[in-house]
User: What shape does this take?
Amino acid sequence: MERYTFRVYRFDPEKDEKGRFQEFEVPVKGAMTVLEGLYYILENLDGSLAFRSSCRAGVCGSCGMHINGRYRLACETQIKLLNSRIITVQPLGSMRVIKDLLVDMDSFWQKYKYVKPYLLPSTPPPERERPQSIDERAKLDGLYECILCGCCTGSCTVASTDKDYLGPAALLWANRFVEDSRDGAMIERLKLVDFEHGVWRCHTIFSCQEVCPKELSPTSSIMNMSRKIIAMKLGLIRKK
Ligand code: SF4
Ligand code: FES
Assistant: This one.
């Protein structure tokens, strides 16, 4: 079995003044993933290593981290496909490290909550459901697939310097409901993101789009809402 060197970011607030890297030799076979490598370390070499994971299938969004120069899902990243015998693993950026690869995502969730990520219909609940046409439903493609992994926020240079910036994930979710034909609160939603730490803070660097494991484009969502806010202020959008 081939052996790879895992360089893993370590930080224990009870012992360390600052973070450091620790190396581990990990035997790798077949399509083993970086997450499986971390579990090998946890179970065989150092039971104190802290990281998040749950589904191990690219669904829950728990295992976003910085792996060999790029934000990725550890459970979807095959070690051998990284084409390097050294695997460097660091926590998500723009967030406080609690321990090792574990970051404090409170602010991330607060911003997600702020954009009201649920339907706000303007009509009473129907007897059965709120139907959508095929075209209306298609407008949500590229928006609903977000798994809230935080890779986009980790990669965003604006989020790393402006702690109040809503960030790419929350703004993508705001747009997901702006574009939903069943929603009745477009104006309210646009007003929520129309401020200095909202859509106008994005520098359109597209780093969020480059790293998103679901190939989504938060930048496009931000630009879409920016255009709609201008239209709203020109009186071209009155209500929905
Ligand atoms: Fe993750 Fe992509 Fe959603 Fe950002 S937009 S949280 S990178 S799935
Ligand atoms: Fe769920 Fe990786 S463990 S996305």
